[in-house]
UniProtKB/TrEMBL annotation:
Biological classification of the source: Eukaryota, Viridiplantae, Streptophyta, Embryophyta, Tracheophyta
Domain SET: 1-252
Protein name (Swiss-Prot/TrEMBL): Protein SET DOMAIN GROUP 41
Domain of life assignment: Eukaryota
InterPro entries: SET_dom, SET_dom_sf
Pfam families referenced in this protein's UniProt entry, alphabetically: SET
CDD domains the record matches: SET_SMYD (cd20071)
Species in which this protein is naturally found: Cardamine amara subsp. amara
């Protein structure tokens, strides 16, 4: 089962009009703060009792189509979440079921056999099916239908995220979307929308069965059995696609090396990916970087010691991140532990070679996670230090430096693998917002800075042609970063050691850097504008020009 292009498709093209979900549900923690239909944020209201019996909606239109207004609180059936069960209930409650049970439900593969042979799922699936049957007051002899529904949700549902990347809940769509297969180098991405109007109703894709002799296919299964509410989904091309070429998206985080991606896909979806990126030998460039190290002797062949050293550094960073995410948060300790690994690396011994150091490559997947955590931890430290303006200034400045470094690192990866555009868009948005927040908070309040090189700050609506405009903006970013990089990174040795955020060569010395000046904070402000402009280009490429207007929902 796959979806293919019905025609040649240019980059940045919506593949079909917005699709309504078959079923959906908010996660438990958002039931009192978001609309249970469209997932939009509700206006502030008095707190509800913990076990309030009704769903909340933003409008009469959102509440009118749902037949399961009472919130069902199922028992703990880990690893199956209450949102999975509510979605399965809605699927059975509000759709016309067409199936060849238990393997197929409404044209969707359920993975019933594979999931039921997995002891970590089978017991929970049976218990969930019994609970659903009891709620629906089913009098059938067995619970195959309920099992198929919960398996269909586990296999096909996707997380709906807001503009800050928070996962609000899940949604299940019909075959036109769910038949789109995964690739670690996809040619498309998808976004969510609450829009009720859409200019182009043309569908540029068609379903395709790769082996019709072994796979039954009924066109009736492609009829839309949806509830016409909930977050709608739209797929969009991020590469040029030829007629007859398969449409692919990513089911997982692509900023992981091959081994972690394969493990993630198997644990969630029960398949091993064989896309060109995963099958590449030697590994694709982005994967070699995501697992790369820097060494003090150029080339080193002690693979066992090197692997052990890399594992030790990765474990130290992950331990610091886990501690930071725990209830007992200590941002300062977290920063010190992560910076120690990123800056000092680790010394390893070899029988036939002198002792030397290894460092994680700055775009190693663990290093990226470390810098992401540093950006957040330093921001928290700046808030905690607001009574000391000098300290708050330094903390917010280093947080902005980490965010900007991540944006530049994501550009390096995106240049080698265009399917990482979605990740790059997020990092450049975060960088622009962090730099803007810092410069406005600590500058004299001026905002009349201009760019005499690209002039795009004067005409932001003229951004047409991704390649041409991205070159102009990035050229400005490179020039400005040469002025402000040493200022931004002062006091952060793990970033200070790099010549620039675009050049991962080590500096020859790490002495005192430039003093703070008004010119530098204004340059940071100018840099923030360019970062946000580049983020807009990437966002337009992935999600469409007006995606920021679509209730803040995206993936």
């Amino acid at each position: 089962m796959e979806i293919i292009a019905a025609e040649d498709i240019n980059i940045g093209t919506d593949l079909f009009p917005p699709l309504s979900p078959l079923a959906f549900s908010l996660y438990e923690s958002f039931l009192s703060s978001h609309c249970s239909s469209c997932f939009s944020l509700l206006p502030p209201s008095p707190p509800r009792p913990p076990q309030s019996p009704t769903s909340l909606y933003c409008s009469a239109a959102c509440s009118s189509s749902l037949t399961d207004s009472p919130i069902i609180s199922p028992p703990d059936l880990s690893p199956i979440l209450s949102s999975d069960i509510r979605t399965a209930l809605r699927l059975l409650n509000s759709t016309v079921v067409t199936s060849s049970l238990p393997h197929r439900l409404n044209g969707l593969l359920t993975n019933h056999h594979r999931l039921m042979t997995d002891t970590s799922f089978s017991v929970s699936i049976k218990n969930a099916a019994n609970f659903i049957a009891a709620v629906l007051k089913s009098n059938r002899e067995n619970t195959e239908l309920e099992e198929a529904a919960i398996c269909s949700v586990l296999t096909n549902a996707v997380e709906v995220q807001d503009s800050n990347g928070r996962a609000l809940g899940i949604a299940l769509y019909d075959s036109r979307f769910s038949w789109i297969n995964h690739s670690c180098s996809p040619n498309s991405c998808y976004r969510f929308s609450n829009t009720t109007s859409y200019q182009n109703d043309t569908t540029k894709t068609i379903p395709h069965i790769t082996n019709p002799e072994t796979t039954s296919y009924n066109l009736e299964e492609f009829k839309t059995f949806c509830c016409f509410q909930g977050p709608k989904v739209i797929a969009r091309s991020i590469k040029k696609i030829k007629k007859g070429e398969e449409i692919t998206v990513s089911y997982i985080d692509l900023l992981q090396p091959t081994g972690l991606r394969q493990s993630d896909l198997w644990s969630k979806y029960r398949f091993m990916c064989s896309c060109r990126r995963c099958a590449a030998s030697p590994p694709a460039y982005v994967d070699s970087i995501l697992e790369g190290v820097l060494t003090s002797v150029g080339h080193y062949h002690g693979n066992i010691n090197k692997d052990e050293a890399m594992g030790e550094m990765t474990d130290h960073i992950q331990e610091a991140i886990d501690n930071f995410l725990s209830d007992d948060i200590n941002p300062k300790s977290c920063c010190e532990k992560i910076e120690n690994v990123l800056y000092h690396g680790i010394q390893i011994k070899a029988d036939s070679q002198p002792n030397h150091h290894l460092w994680l490559h700055p775009i190693h997947h663990a290093a990226l996670n470390g810098y992401i955590t540093l950006a957040t931890a330093y921001r928290i430290r700046s808030i905690d230090s607001e009574t000391d303006m000098g300290k708050a200034f330094d903390m917010r400045r280093i947080s902005a430096a980490c965010s900007f470094f991540l944006a530049c690192a994501s550009h390096h990866l995106f240049s080698a693998e265009p399917s990482l555009a979605m990740s790059a868009a997020k990092f450049w948005t975060n960088a622009g917002e962090s730099l803007l927040d810092f410069s406005r908070k600590f500058s004299s309040g001026r905002s009349d800075v201009k760019c005499n090189k690209c002039h795009m700050l004067e005409t932001p609506n003229s951004l047409r042609g991704f390649n041409e405009n991205s070159k102009k903006i990035l050229s400005c970013v490179t020039d400005i970063s040469q002025v402000v990089w040493s200022f931004l990174t002062r006091g952060c040795p793990c970033l200070q050691k790099f010549m620039s955020p675009f050049d991962f060569s080590f500096t020859k010395a790490n002495g005192e850097r430039d003093e703070t000046s008004e010119d530098q904070t204004l340059s940071v402000l100018l840099l923030s504008f360019h970062c946000l402009l580049y983020a807009d280009l990437l966002t337009d490429l992935c999600y469409g020009q007006n995606s920021h207007l679509l209730s803040g929902l995206h993936v």
